[in-house]
Design goal:
By secondary structure, the chain is of the alpha/beta class. The protein is built from 18 helices and twelve strands. The longest helix has 26 residues.
Protein backbone atom coordinates (compact mmCIF):
# COMPACT_ATOMS: atom_id res chain seq x y z
CA UNK A 1 0.00 0.00 0.00
CA UNK A 2 1.51 3.30 -1.14
CA UNK A 3 0.74 6.85 -0.06
CA UNK A 4 -2.01 7.19 -2.67
CA UNK A 5 -3.75 4.10 -1.28
CA UNK A 6 -3.47 5.52 2.24
CA UNK A 7 -4.96 8.85 1.15
CA UNK A 8 -7.72 7.01 -0.69
CA UNK A 9 -8.62 5.02 2.42
CA UNK A 10 -8.62 8.15 4.58
CA UNK A 11 -10.72 10.08 2.10
CA UNK A 12 -13.26 7.31 1.60
CA UNK A 13 -13.65 7.01 5.37
CA UNK A 14 -13.46 10.72 6.17
CA UNK A 15 -16.94 10.83 7.67
CA UNK A 16 -16.17 7.87 9.92
CA UNK A 17 -12.96 9.56 11.09
CA UNK A 18 -14.71 12.89 11.64
CA UNK A 19 -17.47 11.15 13.60
CA UNK A 20 -14.90 9.42 15.82
CA UNK A 21 -13.07 12.74 16.35
CA UNK A 22 -16.31 14.49 17.29
CA UNK A 23 -17.35 11.65 19.58
CA UNK A 24 -13.93 11.53 21.25
CA UNK A 25 -13.95 15.29 21.83
CA UNK A 26 -17.46 15.14 23.29
CA UNK A 27 -16.48 12.26 25.56
CA UNK A 28 -13.46 14.28 26.75
CA UNK A 29 -15.70 17.23 27.58
CA UNK A 30 -18.29 14.95 29.20
CA UNK A 31 -15.58 13.35 31.32
CA UNK A 32 -14.50 16.81 32.46
CA UNK A 33 -18.08 17.71 33.41
CA UNK A 34 -18.38 14.59 35.57
CA UNK A 35 -15.22 15.38 37.53
CA UNK A 36 -15.37 17.38 40.77
CA UNK A 37 -14.09 20.96 40.64
CA UNK A 38 -10.84 21.13 42.62
CA UNK A 39 -8.54 23.99 43.61
CA UNK A 40 -4.82 23.69 44.29
CA UNK A 41 -2.70 25.96 46.49
CA UNK A 42 1.05 25.72 47.16
CA UNK A 43 3.08 26.89 50.14
CA UNK A 44 6.89 26.96 50.29
CA UNK A 45 9.20 26.06 53.15
CA UNK A 46 12.96 26.40 53.61
CA UNK A 47 15.41 23.84 54.97
CA UNK A 48 18.43 25.63 56.44
CA UNK A 49 21.61 24.60 58.17
CA UNK A 50 22.52 27.17 60.75
CA UNK A 51 25.63 29.10 59.80
CA UNK A 52 25.43 28.25 56.07
CA UNK A 53 23.91 29.88 52.96
CA UNK A 54 20.15 30.20 53.28
CA UNK A 55 18.67 30.13 49.76
CA UNK A 56 21.03 28.01 47.70
CA UNK A 57 21.69 25.67 50.57
CA UNK A 58 24.44 23.19 51.05
CA UNK A 59 24.42 19.58 49.99
CA UNK A 60 23.38 18.72 53.53
CA UNK A 61 20.35 21.02 53.38
CA UNK A 62 19.29 19.70 49.98
CA UNK A 63 19.63 16.11 51.14
CA UNK A 64 17.59 16.84 54.28
CA UNK A 65 14.94 18.59 52.20
CA UNK A 66 14.49 15.45 50.07
CA UNK A 67 14.26 13.29 53.17
CA UNK A 68 11.51 15.49 54.65
CA UNK A 69 9.20 15.19 51.63
CA UNK A 70 7.72 11.81 52.72
CA UNK A 71 6.71 13.40 56.03
CA UNK A 72 4.13 15.54 54.24
CA UNK A 73 1.81 12.57 53.72
CA UNK A 74 2.54 10.91 57.06
CA UNK A 75 -0.25 10.21 59.51
CA UNK A 76 1.20 12.59 62.08
CA UNK A 77 1.19 15.52 59.63
CA UNK A 78 -2.31 14.68 58.41
CA UNK A 79 -3.66 14.59 61.95
CA UNK A 80 -2.12 17.99 62.71
CA UNK A 81 -3.68 19.35 59.48
CA UNK A 82 -7.05 17.92 60.46
CA UNK A 83 -6.84 19.51 63.90
CA UNK A 84 -6.00 22.88 62.36
CA UNK A 85 -8.44 22.92 59.42
CA UNK A 86 -11.17 20.58 60.66
CA UNK A 87 -10.94 18.36 57.58
CA UNK A 88 -10.96 14.57 57.43
CA UNK A 89 -7.33 13.33 57.65
CA UNK A 90 -7.97 10.68 55.00
CA UNK A 91 -9.67 13.16 52.65
CA UNK A 92 -6.92 15.75 52.67
CA UNK A 93 -5.03 15.74 49.36
CA UNK A 94 -1.41 16.64 49.99
CA UNK A 95 1.64 16.48 47.81
CA UNK A 96 5.21 17.54 48.44
CA UNK A 97 8.22 18.17 46.26
CA UNK A 98 11.69 19.70 46.44
CA UNK A 99 12.53 22.51 44.02
CA UNK A 100 15.42 21.13 41.90
CA UNK A 101 18.94 22.16 43.00
CA UNK A 102 17.69 23.99 46.09
CA UNK A 103 16.65 23.46 49.67
CA UNK A 104 13.08 24.64 49.12
CA UNK A 105 10.14 22.35 49.91
CA UNK A 106 6.80 22.95 48.20
CA UNK A 107 3.63 21.62 49.82
CA UNK A 108 0.52 21.43 47.65
CA UNK A 109 -2.99 21.14 49.05
CA UNK A 110 -6.07 20.32 47.00
CA UNK A 111 -9.71 20.88 47.93
CA UNK A 112 -13.09 21.77 46.48
CA UNK A 113 -12.77 25.25 47.99
CA UNK A 114 -9.94 27.69 47.13
CA UNK A 115 -9.77 28.98 50.71
CA UNK A 116 -9.68 25.46 52.13
CA UNK A 117 -6.94 24.46 49.66
CA UNK A 118 -4.80 27.35 50.90
CA UNK A 119 -5.44 26.46 54.57
CA UNK A 120 -4.51 22.82 53.95
CA UNK A 121 -1.26 23.76 52.19
CA UNK A 122 -0.23 26.21 54.92
CA UNK A 123 -1.18 23.86 57.74
CA UNK A 124 0.66 20.97 56.13
CA UNK A 125 3.82 23.05 55.76
CA UNK A 126 3.73 24.11 59.42
CA UNK A 127 2.97 20.58 60.56
CA UNK A 128 5.80 19.16 58.44
CA UNK A 129 8.23 21.70 59.91
CA UNK A 130 7.16 20.80 63.45
CA UNK A 131 7.47 17.07 62.88
CA UNK A 132 10.84 17.42 61.13
CA UNK A 133 12.25 19.67 63.86
CA UNK A 134 10.93 17.39 66.61
CA UNK A 135 12.62 14.35 65.10
CA UNK A 136 16.09 15.68 65.93
CA UNK A 137 15.91 18.58 68.39
CA UNK A 138 19.70 18.78 68.72
CA UNK A 139 20.30 19.09 64.96
CA UNK A 140 21.36 22.40 63.46
CA UNK A 141 19.02 21.74 60.46
CA UNK A 142 15.67 23.49 60.69
CA UNK A 143 12.54 23.75 58.51
CA UNK A 144 10.83 27.11 58.43
CA UNK A 145 7.87 28.51 56.48
CA UNK A 146 8.96 30.87 53.71
CA UNK A 147 5.85 31.66 51.65
CA UNK A 148 2.23 31.03 52.54
CA UNK A 149 -0.23 29.66 50.02
CA UNK A 150 -2.91 32.00 48.68
CA UNK A 151 -6.42 30.97 47.58
CA UNK A 152 -6.23 30.21 43.82
CA UNK A 153 -8.36 32.25 41.45
CA UNK A 154 -9.28 29.34 39.14
CA UNK A 155 -9.74 25.59 39.56
CA UNK A 156 -6.90 23.24 38.72
CA UNK A 157 -9.21 20.40 37.80
CA UNK A 158 -10.91 19.43 35.58
CA UNK A 159 -8.78 20.63 32.68
CA UNK A 160 -11.37 20.92 29.88
CA UNK A 161 -8.89 21.71 27.13
CA UNK A 162 -6.52 18.89 27.99
CA UNK A 163 -9.31 16.31 28.28
CA UNK A 164 -10.90 17.51 25.02
CA UNK A 165 -7.55 17.20 23.23
CA UNK A 166 -7.03 13.73 24.69
CA UNK A 167 -10.49 12.76 23.43
CA UNK A 168 -9.77 14.27 20.03
CA UNK A 169 -6.49 12.36 19.73
CA UNK A 170 -8.15 9.12 20.78
CA UNK A 171 -10.91 9.76 18.22
CA UNK A 172 -8.34 10.23 15.44
CA UNK A 173 -6.57 6.99 16.37
CA UNK A 174 -9.83 5.02 16.59
CA UNK A 175 -11.20 6.55 13.37
CA UNK A 176 -8.05 5.80 11.35
CA UNK A 177 -7.94 2.28 12.81
CA UNK A 178 -11.56 1.70 11.78
CA UNK A 179 -10.84 3.07 8.29
CA UNK A 180 -7.96 0.69 7.66
CA UNK A 181 -9.79 -2.19 9.33
CA UNK A 182 -12.72 -1.64 6.98
CA UNK A 183 -10.34 -1.66 4.01
CA UNK A 184 -8.63 -4.85 5.14
CA UNK A 185 -11.91 -6.62 5.88
CA UNK A 186 -13.77 -5.19 2.86
CA UNK A 187 -14.84 -8.02 0.56
CA UNK A 188 -16.28 -5.81 -2.17
CA UNK A 189 -14.60 -4.42 -5.27
CA UNK A 190 -13.63 -0.82 -4.48
CA UNK A 191 -10.94 -0.03 -7.04
CA UNK A 192 -10.02 -1.08 -10.53
CA UNK A 193 -7.03 -2.85 -9.01
CA UNK A 194 -9.40 -5.00 -6.94
CA UNK A 195 -11.37 -5.85 -10.08
CA UNK A 196 -8.32 -6.79 -12.12
CA UNK A 197 -6.84 -8.97 -9.38
CA UNK A 198 -10.10 -10.81 -8.67
CA UNK A 199 -10.99 -11.26 -12.35
CA UNK A 200 -7.45 -12.21 -13.33
CA UNK A 201 -7.57 -10.03 -16.42
CA UNK A 202 -6.97 -6.48 -17.60
CA UNK A 203 -9.20 -3.44 -17.35
CA UNK A 204 -11.30 -2.56 -20.39
CA UNK A 205 -13.04 0.44 -18.91
CA UNK A 206 -14.68 2.08 -15.93
CA UNK A 207 -18.17 3.51 -16.24
CA UNK A 208 -19.04 6.28 -13.79
CA UNK A 209 -22.16 6.41 -11.65
CA UNK A 210 -24.39 8.55 -13.89
CA UNK A 211 -28.19 8.73 -14.06
CA UNK A 212 -27.97 9.56 -17.76
CA UNK A 213 -26.97 5.93 -18.45
CA UNK A 214 -30.48 4.81 -17.51
CA UNK A 215 -33.29 4.90 -20.06
CA UNK A 216 -36.35 7.13 -19.90
CA UNK A 217 -39.87 6.01 -19.16
CA UNK A 218 -40.61 5.49 -22.86
CA UNK A 219 -37.56 3.26 -23.30
CA UNK A 220 -35.57 5.92 -25.14
CA UNK A 221 -31.94 6.25 -24.15
CA UNK A 222 -31.04 9.58 -22.60
CA UNK A 223 -28.30 11.79 -23.95
CA UNK A 224 -25.29 10.73 -21.93
CA UNK A 225 -23.53 13.14 -19.64
CA UNK A 226 -20.05 14.05 -20.98
CA UNK A 227 -18.23 11.89 -18.45
CA UNK A 228 -20.45 8.87 -19.06
CA UNK A 229 -20.26 9.29 -22.84
CA UNK A 230 -16.47 9.45 -22.73
CA UNK A 231 -16.34 6.33 -20.57
CA UNK A 232 -18.48 4.41 -23.07
CA UNK A 233 -16.34 5.64 -25.98
CA UNK A 234 -13.20 4.58 -24.11
CA UNK A 235 -14.70 1.11 -23.63
CA UNK A 236 -15.57 1.01 -27.34
CA UNK A 237 -11.99 1.90 -28.27
CA UNK A 238 -10.45 -0.65 -25.92
CA UNK A 239 -12.69 -3.41 -27.27
CA UNK A 240 -11.71 -2.54 -30.81
CA UNK A 241 -8.02 -3.06 -30.06
CA UNK A 242 -8.35 -5.97 -27.64
CA UNK A 243 -7.12 -8.29 -30.37
CA UNK A 244 -5.39 -6.46 -33.22
CA UNK A 245 -4.35 -9.56 -35.19
CA UNK A 246 -7.56 -11.51 -34.53
CA UNK A 247 -10.26 -9.12 -33.30
CA UNK A 248 -13.30 -10.79 -31.73
CA UNK A 249 -16.47 -10.81 -33.82
CA UNK A 250 -18.77 -12.07 -31.07
CA UNK A 251 -18.55 -10.92 -27.46
CA UNK A 252 -20.67 -11.96 -24.47
CA UNK A 253 -21.13 -9.58 -21.54
CA UNK A 254 -21.79 -11.17 -18.19
CA UNK A 255 -21.34 -10.61 -14.44
CA UNK A 256 -20.95 -12.71 -11.36
CA UNK A 257 -24.39 -11.85 -9.93
CA UNK A 258 -27.57 -10.06 -11.04
CA UNK A 259 -27.91 -6.31 -10.60
CA UNK A 260 -24.36 -5.27 -11.52
CA UNK A 261 -25.37 -3.17 -14.53
CA UNK A 262 -24.15 -5.29 -17.44
CA UNK A 263 -27.34 -4.75 -19.47
CA UNK A 264 -27.22 -0.97 -19.05
CA UNK A 265 -23.53 -0.81 -19.93
CA UNK A 266 -23.98 -3.09 -22.94
CA UNK A 267 -26.98 -1.21 -24.37
CA UNK A 268 -25.11 2.09 -24.28
CA UNK A 269 -21.98 0.46 -25.67
CA UNK A 270 -23.92 -1.07 -28.58
CA UNK A 271 -25.39 2.33 -29.46
CA UNK A 272 -21.94 3.92 -29.31
CA UNK A 273 -20.41 1.27 -31.61
CA UNK A 274 -23.30 1.68 -34.06
CA UNK A 275 -22.78 5.45 -33.98
CA UNK A 276 -19.18 4.91 -35.10
CA UNK A 277 -20.42 3.32 -38.33
CA UNK A 278 -19.85 -0.38 -37.57
CA UNK A 279 -22.49 -3.03 -38.17
CA UNK A 280 -23.63 -4.27 -34.78
CA UNK A 281 -26.15 -6.83 -33.58
CA UNK A 282 -27.18 -6.85 -29.94
CA UNK A 283 -28.67 -10.13 -28.71
CA UNK A 284 -30.45 -10.39 -25.38
CA UNK A 285 -29.53 -13.93 -24.36
CA UNK A 286 -30.66 -13.55 -20.76
CA UNK A 287 -33.71 -15.73 -21.31
CA UNK A 288 -34.59 -15.88 -17.62
CA UNK A 289 -34.55 -12.16 -16.72
CA UNK A 290 -34.35 -10.17 -19.99
CA UNK A 291 -33.70 -6.44 -19.72
CA UNK A 292 -32.76 -5.15 -23.15
CA UNK A 293 -36.31 -5.01 -24.55
CA UNK A 294 -37.34 -2.82 -21.63
CA UNK A 295 -34.26 -0.62 -22.04
CA UNK A 296 -35.04 -0.05 -25.74
CA UNK A 297 -38.80 0.11 -25.28
CA UNK A 298 -39.66 -2.66 -27.77
CA UNK A 299 -41.84 -5.76 -27.59
CA UNK A 300 -40.32 -8.97 -26.26
CA UNK A 301 -42.97 -11.37 -27.57
CA UNK A 302 -40.87 -12.68 -30.45
CA UNK A 303 -37.14 -13.04 -30.13
CA UNK A 304 -34.18 -15.35 -29.64
CA UNK A 305 -36.04 -18.23 -28.01
CA UNK A 306 -38.57 -18.38 -30.89
CA UNK A 307 -35.78 -18.26 -33.47
CA UNK A 308 -33.89 -21.10 -31.79
CA UNK A 309 -36.90 -23.44 -31.74
CA UNK A 310 -37.93 -22.52 -35.30
CA UNK A 311 -41.14 -20.69 -34.41
CA UNK A 312 -39.91 -17.46 -36.03
CA UNK A 313 -37.47 -16.41 -38.72
CA UNK A 314 -34.46 -14.30 -37.76
CA UNK A 315 -35.50 -11.49 -40.10
CA UNK A 316 -38.92 -11.33 -38.42
CA UNK A 317 -37.51 -11.28 -34.88
CA UNK A 318 -34.65 -8.86 -35.34
CA UNK A 319 -35.38 -5.13 -35.40
CA UNK A 320 -33.59 -1.83 -35.77
CA UNK A 321 -33.30 0.49 -32.74
CA UNK A 322 -31.61 3.80 -32.14
CA UNK A 323 -30.61 6.46 -34.65
CA UNK A 324 -27.64 4.66 -36.21
CA UNK A 325 -29.04 1.33 -37.38
CA UNK A 326 -28.32 -0.86 -34.37
CA UNK A 327 -29.85 -4.30 -34.90
CA UNK A 328 -31.48 -5.81 -31.84
CA UNK A 329 -32.67 -9.36 -31.22
CA UNK A 330 -34.82 -9.53 -28.05
CA UNK A 331 -34.82 -12.59 -25.84
CA UNK A 332 -38.40 -13.57 -26.58
CA UNK A 333 -40.52 -15.52 -24.15
CA UNK A 334 -38.81 -17.40 -21.32
CA UNK A 335 -38.54 -21.07 -22.39
CA UNK A 336 -38.70 -24.04 -19.99
CA UNK A 337 -35.13 -25.00 -20.95
CA UNK A 338 -32.97 -21.85 -21.29
CA UNK A 339 -29.64 -23.64 -20.76
CA UNK A 340 -30.37 -26.22 -23.43
CA UNK A 341 -31.33 -23.55 -25.96
CA UNK A 342 -28.29 -21.37 -25.31
CA UNK A 343 -25.96 -24.38 -25.47
CA UNK A 344 -27.50 -25.78 -28.65
CA UNK A 345 -25.84 -26.06 -32.04
CA UNK A 346 -28.50 -23.72 -33.42
CA UNK A 347 -27.28 -20.97 -31.08
CA UNK A 348 -23.71 -21.50 -32.23
CA UNK A 349 -24.78 -21.38 -35.85
CA UNK A 350 -26.77 -18.20 -35.27
CA UNK A 351 -23.80 -16.43 -33.67
CA UNK A 352 -21.45 -17.63 -36.41
CA UNK A 353 -23.84 -16.49 -39.13
CA UNK A 354 -24.37 -13.02 -37.71
CA UNK A 355 -20.69 -12.50 -36.90
CA UNK A 356 -19.77 -12.81 -40.59
CA UNK A 357 -21.22 -9.39 -41.32
CA UNK A 358 -21.72 -7.80 -37.90
CA UNK A 359 -20.10 -7.41 -34.55
CA UNK A 360 -22.27 -9.54 -32.26
CA UNK A 361 -22.75 -8.34 -28.69
CA UNK A 362 -24.58 -10.72 -26.37
CA UNK A 363 -26.21 -9.87 -23.06
CA UNK A 364 -25.58 -13.09 -21.14
CA UNK A 365 -27.03 -14.14 -17.76
CA UNK A 366 -24.85 -13.84 -14.64
CA UNK A 367 -22.36 -16.66 -14.12
CA UNK A 368 -23.01 -17.78 -10.55
CA UNK A 369 -26.79 -18.41 -10.52
CA UNK A 370 -27.01 -20.47 -13.74
CA UNK A 371 -24.79 -22.22 -16.27
CA UNK A 372 -26.10 -20.26 -19.27
CA UNK A 373 -23.12 -17.90 -19.43
CA UNK A 374 -20.53 -20.66 -19.36
CA UNK A 375 -22.35 -22.35 -22.24
CA UNK A 376 -22.43 -19.11 -24.22
CA UNK A 377 -18.77 -18.45 -23.44
CA UNK A 378 -17.80 -21.50 -25.51
CA UNK A 379 -19.72 -20.19 -28.52
CA UNK A 380 -18.31 -16.65 -28.70
CA UNK A 381 -14.87 -15.23 -29.40
CA UNK A 382 -14.58 -13.58 -25.99
CA UNK A 383 -16.33 -12.73 -22.76
CA UNK A 384 -16.34 -9.47 -20.79
CA UNK A 385 -16.97 -9.44 -17.05
CA UNK A 386 -18.90 -6.47 -15.65
CA UNK A 387 -18.52 -5.70 -11.95
CA UNK A 388 -20.22 -3.02 -9.85
CA UNK A 389 -18.10 -0.73 -7.69
CA UNK A 390 -18.77 -1.32 -4.00
CA UNK A 391 -21.33 -4.08 -4.68
CA UNK A 392 -19.58 -7.00 -6.36
CA UNK A 393 -17.84 -9.29 -3.89
CA UNK A 394 -14.25 -10.13 -4.76
CA UNK A 395 -14.69 -13.80 -3.88
CA UNK A 396 -17.79 -14.03 -6.12
CA UNK A 397 -15.81 -12.50 -8.97
CA UNK A 398 -13.03 -15.02 -8.41
CA UNK A 399 -15.52 -17.90 -8.55
CA UNK A 400 -17.01 -16.52 -11.78
CA UNK A 401 -13.51 -16.26 -13.24
CA UNK A 402 -12.76 -19.88 -12.30
CA UNK A 403 -16.06 -21.12 -13.75
CA UNK A 404 -15.31 -19.43 -17.06
CA UNK A 405 -11.79 -20.82 -16.95
CA UNK A 406 -13.16 -24.32 -16.50
CA UNK A 407 -14.73 -24.19 -19.99
CA UNK A 408 -11.61 -22.48 -21.44
CA UNK A 409 -13.50 -19.27 -22.09
CA UNK A 410 -11.54 -16.31 -23.43
CA UNK A 411 -12.02 -13.48 -20.94
CA UNK A 412 -11.21 -10.25 -22.78
CA UNK A 413 -11.23 -8.03 -19.72
CA UNK A 414 -13.25 -6.51 -16.92
CA UNK A 415 -15.45 -3.40 -16.85
CA UNK A 416 -16.04 -1.61 -13.56
CA UNK A 417 -19.50 -0.06 -13.41
CA UNK A 418 -20.82 2.58 -11.00
CA UNK A 419 -17.44 4.12 -10.24
CA UNK A 420 -17.52 7.39 -8.24
CA UNK A 421 -16.89 10.21 -10.67
CA UNK A 422 -14.64 12.30 -8.45
CA UNK A 423 -12.16 12.14 -5.63
CA UNK A 424 -9.50 9.66 -4.58
CA UNK A 425 -12.21 7.02 -4.19
CA UNK A 426 -11.96 6.44 -7.94
CA UNK A 427 -8.45 5.71 -9.09
CA UNK A 428 -9.75 5.49 -12.66
CA UNK A 429 -13.03 6.65 -14.10
CA UNK A 430 -14.64 7.98 -17.24
CA UNK A 431 -11.56 7.62 -19.37
CA UNK A 432 -9.36 9.68 -17.09
CA UNK A 433 -7.14 9.62 -14.04
CA UNK A 434 -7.87 13.05 -12.53
CA UNK A 435 -8.13 13.39 -8.77
CA UNK A 436 -11.02 15.86 -8.91
CA UNK A 437 -14.39 15.50 -10.55
CA UNK A 438 -14.16 18.60 -12.76
CA UNK A 439 -10.58 18.20 -14.00
CA UNK A 440 -11.67 17.05 -17.47
CA UNK A 441 -14.94 18.97 -17.81
CA UNK A 442 -13.50 21.47 -20.30
CA UNK A 443 -12.46 18.61 -22.58
CA UNK A 444 -15.81 16.86 -22.25
CA UNK A 445 -17.89 20.00 -22.81
CA UNK A 446 -15.92 21.32 -25.80
CA UNK A 447 -17.74 19.21 -28.47
CA UNK A 448 -21.16 20.12 -27.03
CA UNK A 449 -20.33 23.81 -27.03
CA UNK A 450 -19.01 23.60 -30.59
CA UNK A 451 -22.21 21.87 -31.73
CA UNK A 452 -24.35 24.67 -30.28
CA UNK A 453 -22.42 27.42 -32.08
CA UNK A 454 -23.71 28.51 -35.48
CA UNK A 455 -21.20 28.82 -38.35
CA UNK A 456 -21.40 32.60 -38.15
CA UNK A 457 -20.66 32.57 -34.45
CA UNK A 458 -17.80 30.19 -35.01
CA UNK A 459 -16.26 32.39 -37.69
CA UNK A 460 -16.69 35.54 -35.61
CA UNK A 461 -15.14 33.81 -32.65
Amino acid sequence: MNIVDVLRVLRNNRWVILACVALGTLLGVAYSLLQPVLYTATSTGLVVVQGEATLSGTETAQTRAKSYVPLINSRTVREKVADTTGTDPAAAQLKGAVVPDSNLIQVTGTSSSPEEAARIANSALVATAEVANDLDPESNVRVTAMEDALPPGSPSSPDYLRNALYGLGAGVVVGVAIAFLRRVLDVNVRTTKDAQEAAGTGLLGAVPREKSLDTGKDGAHNELAPRAAEAIRQLRTNLRFVGVDNPPRSIAFTSSNPGEGKSTVLSNLALAIAASGRNVVLIDADLRRPRQATLFGVSNRVGLSEVLVGEAELDDAIREVGEHGLLFLPSGRTPPNPSEQLGSDRMRELIAELSKTHLVLIDAPPVLPVTDSTLLATAVDGTVLVVHHGKTRKDHLEVARDMLGTVNATVLGVVVNGVPSSGLGSDYYGGGYAATGDAYDKYYDAPNKAAKNTPEETISA
